[in-house]
Design brief:
Blueprint (H helix, E strand, L loop, with lengths): L1 E7 L10 H15 L6 E5 L2 E5 L4 H11 L7 E8 L3 H15 L3 E8 L8 H15 L4 E2 L6 E7 L3 E5 L2 E2 L11 E5 L5 H11 L3 E8 L6 H18 L3 E6 L1 H10 L5 H20 L3 E3 L12 H8 L6 E2 L7 H10 L3 H4 L6 H5 L10 H8 L4 H10 L2 E4 L1
Parallel strand pairs: 5-6, 5-7, 10-11, 10-13, 11-12, 13-14
Antiparallel strand pairs: 1-3, 1-4, 2-3, 4-8, 4-9, 7-8, 12-15
This protein binds adenosine-5'-triphosphate and magnesium ion.
The site of magnesium ion has 4 residues, from loops.
Length: about 375
């Protein structure tokens, strides 16, 4: 008797003509996430079955990893049985006995319509067999201790219960986006949300070395690693902002330094996006959270680039974002206290309602083009 994993992928199945494209991508992502675990993947009538021959520990590790693969709605550990009603009955009985369930219910799905016994009849016969053979269990159709599911496919599968997957769409089915990844709480969550909708991520991080430390840099790499578990790898661009921040500080009013810095970040990101063929920029901004995230500031920031800028956290409160960060395992890393480039050079009293004309005027005192090219060209690229 073999145990394997039955994967359900809800939304993907709705994608009409693109269906096989989505499913093939999901199968590929599943394979990638199981790197290092021996496995085989079988497609079977609207489900994916993953066979893990290496024993219970490997199976458990595989379930844990699959729960992070976007596009998977839920999964179950299932037992494969011959498509023979007597064998199915026997295995269902063993399940009730091994779990010592006081009450049970049987549900059944017959995906293979060639199987001669219809679903309600399968339920009835299996239920009757269990009642006959087992002394101390009874049926409870409303609130059973054990819900036994029987699915008739290329093989018969029996399972009890299921675990929730990450949902969303398979990474790589929705184009590429470039995430501006700080070391904070918000941007990893923003990246996760966009990746969840199928977008493949690259990330850019701005540092102010030597004013920011190696440990601050390592923190961002660690965050990218957590995200990469969901996305199947991330290319991380590390860009120095030190010269740009120095130049802004020497030539522009202090209260404008935040917004000017943010406009440079966007332009550098846009330049990198053009190289990597990313279609949009993604940030962790949430409306009104800080000075640089007032509606006025966001508009002035946006006008520095042509690419669309996605802000999936725009309408979320900090508490909601923190909840999500905990759920995806980035929170504990994000709150490590290493300094960020933005906290180093910036004014205590940034302007909250910047005016574009004034900002453009200040920028005219800066050698923007060479500063940007220099930052882009000297970047470091890591494959996380
Ligand atoms: P976060 O928690 O994501 O750091 P925040 O609340 O600190 O956000 P800001 O510092 O205004 O807010 O940054 C807003 C967004 O700009 C971030 O979510 C991120 O997308 C981007 N960003 C800020 N600093 C950096 C950086 N050093 N490198 C890359 N992107 C950054
Ligand atoms: Mg930040």
């Amino acid at each position: 008797m073999e145990e394997l994993i039955l994967v359900r992928y809800g939304e993907v199945a709705l994608k009409g003509g693109n269906r096989s494209f989505f499913i093939n991508r999901l199968v590929r992502n599943i394979g990638k996430s199981l790197n290092g675990i021996q496995h085989s993947i079988i497609k079977d009538r609207g489900r994916i079955l993953v066979e893990i021959p290496g024993g219970p520990n490997q199976l458990q590790e595989a379930v844990k990893r699959l729960k992070k693969v976007f596009g998977i709605v839920s999964l179950s550990r299932v037992v494969k049985v011959e498509k023979d009603l007597d064998k199915i009955k026997q295995r269902a009985l063993e399940m009730v006995e091994s779990q010592q369930a006081a009450t049970f219910k049987v549900e059944s799905r017959r995906a293979d319509k060639a199987f001669p016994v219809k679903s309600p009849e399968i339920c009835r016969q299996v239920g009757a067999y269990i009642l006959e053979k087992s002394d101390n269990t009874r049926v409870d159709v409303h609130n059973p201790d054990l819900l036994i599911n029987i699915e008739i496919r290329d093989e018969a599968y029996i399972f009890a219960g299921f675990e929730k997957g990450s949902g969303g769409l398979p990474t790589g089915t929705g184009g590429r986006g470039l995430l501006l990844l700080s070391g904070g709480i918000d941007s990893p969550v923003a990246g996760w949300m966009v990746a969840k909708r199928g977008v493949e991520l690259e990330a850019v991080h701005f540092h102010s070395f030597p004013f920011t430390s190696e440990r601050a840099k390592q923190k961002v790499i660690d965050l990218a690693e957590v995200l990469a578990v969901y996305t199947g790898g991330i290319k991380l661009h590390m860009v120095s902002l030190t010269d740009i921040q120095g130049s802004i500080n020497r030539n522009c009013p202090a209260e404008q330094s935040t917004i000017l810095t943010r406009r440079f970040m966007m332009r550098i990101a846009e330049r990198i996006a053009a190289e990597t063929k990313a279609l949009a920029l993604v940030t962790g901004e949430s409306l009104g959270q800080v000075a640089s995230q007032t509606l006025e500031s966001i508009c002035v920031t946006d006008s520095s680039v042509d690419l669309p800028v996605f802000r999936p956290l725009l309408g979320m409160d900090k508490v909601e974002i923190i909840d999500r960060a905990r759920g995806i395992d980035t929170y504990e890393l994000s709150i490590l206290p290493y300094e960020d480039c933005c906290t180093i050079f910036l004014s205590e009293h940034p302007e909250t309602k910047p005016r574009l004309e004034k900002i453009l005027q200040s920028e005219s005192h800066l050698e923007a083009e060479p500063l940007i090219s220099q930052a882009v060209e000297s970047r470091e690229i890591l494959n996380v």
